[in-house]
Give the backbone structure.
Amino acid sequence: MITRRLAIGGLLAALAGNARAAAPAFRPLQSGSFDGLVAARRNQPFLLVLWSITCGPCRDEFALLREMRKRYPQLPLVLISTDDLSDEAMAAKALQDFAMAGEENWLFADDAQKLRYEIDPGWYGELPRAYFYAASHSREGISGALARERIEAWIRAEKIG
């Protein structure tokens, strides 16, 4: 009985260690770094999703994104948390809880108003917010929850996967 408890305890400890290992590494989004984020994907389509720990619909959207990732493993996805560095631990936990820790994750690390303007001068911070970038780097911004049909239409148009 004691051996069995020790084995179960060891298994739980190993799982906890793996959960910690899966913690997302946020890249700091600072003034000027958004242009680099986009430039690094030159001639490549990608889906940019902005979210926050205080945005319920954003977190609900993670279920759809997780499903899309399973169905389309080549889906180029970039997540940006609009929370600041003081909320990094909570943002990391949210990503882990919703199995999004393995994506490319960024976190606002500068003045939010300035970063929002750099991302899109016409965006005033409403969430959820997403941008569908074409390979040509033309983009379409969408406020509100993403729809599966819209994501799939973009995947087909960009010939992803």
